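PROTOCOL LOG
Step 1. Enter all chains and additional molecules of the complex.
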Amino acid sequence: MSDAASKSAPAGGLRVAIYAPDLLRRTALSGVVAEAGHIVVGAQDAADVVLADGDCLPGETRPVVTLGGADYDLPGVLSRQASASQIDAAIRAVSAGLIVRVPDAMDAGFGVMRETDGPALLTPRELEVLATLAEGMTNKAIARRLNISLHTVKFHVESLFRKLGARTRTEAVAKASDRRRYETITL
Amino acid sequence: MTDQADFLAQFSNALATRTEAAKDAVVAIRLAHGRHITGMVWRSDIVVVSEQSLPRKDDFELVAAGGSVLTARIAGRDPSTNIAVLRLAESIASPPITVGEAHTGAVALAIGADGAGGVSARLGLVNLAGAEWHSSRGGLIDRRIVLDLRLARSEEGGPVFDAAGACLGMSTFGPRGQVIAIPTATIERIVPLLLKDGRIARGWLGVALQAVAVPDALRQTADQSSGLMVMSVVEDGPAAQAGIVAGDIILSVDGASTHRFRKIAGHFGSDSIGRKADLRLIRSGTVITVQTTIAERPAA
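Step 2. Run joint prediction.
Step 3. Record the structure below.
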């Protein structure tokens, strides 16, 4: 990989070529890149990094950050929903010769449909309580929001911890979002 | 030389011979940056590839045995079984494929394309040969075949042979880098459908669902302990048109309990499109039945 970082990029910013067939996405990504202090250059211009929305053009030799592309061997692999700070960090990292992966993507692969067993399934009420936990609400605030007693809130939170195998509120929220990600069925 | 050394030499020679014989069974599919993945020569003009690793485009450049470069066009892809099919612009030599049955503990030889017309080989065991399973994308895979061997990304999509030279399936990656095979039986089932329609049509209601426990107070009426809660409804989709809203808990589809999603997955095959389906569901504390018409799942 070329030592792109040492080339004449403006202080702090890099020259980024954006490849996005969709004009709206292109405009949005240009905004994200410029906001992060980089210079957006034309697709054919000298660039330190190429940011590709999906798959990039074949034969690309510059370091590429792909958003949702199928080529997992590119230096930078993010999802199509990557945040602005992830995109900025990935651009800087690949220009310095590093590779970038999202932990989730390491978990990609063709796998079995996951289903939680009966006793660990949450009830609709528990899902409501979980949503309030995700907002960082206290038990008192939850009781007010859901119009239930403080005692009932504590009961639901304990049940959530038990079913999710969590010891803290943060852990419960993380484990539940994991479940939701892997076990949501689209029909 | 002892008998044992003879045996090892024979074993080794047999593997080398098998690998050499498999050179017509694979092609390399060129990707960007000089990389490639492997494809399995299914017929003289048809190549089977791992869907998850094939870039979403129409035209591909392939390297066949001996190094000749060919062009191929996508003929169909099915994410639910991880099978994609490419149609070659010209015919090539294609060795006959015999269907092999995977047995736990049996030897497995995985072949990859090296990108220059040659092959690479991996030897291991069938780590686990199990029952049929449903993928996270809703497809039915005829058998669970987990392999105990390493595989490079460039080798994914090649054939996996048993000791008799029969084909167990196509190598691919499962979660956390696990190497699995899509059984030959599944490929045989899916390829004709992809060649005909370019995709596997599936039934669709336009909802995202999550399994939930039925609240205690409703278990008696619902007569089951779990169901699928509607998390979101696609605008103007079949479910939306039938008045289904987020928060509804679906208990059964045409009398089949949603207790296990796998059990109802079969109700949404290609033959379900256009059919009416009765959904029994819980809405605001009561059990009601809503009729919907199953539509075809739009392309992803």
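Step 4. Note key features.
Confidence is low (pLDDT under 50) at residues 1-9 of chain A.
Chain A is about 40% helix and 15% strand.
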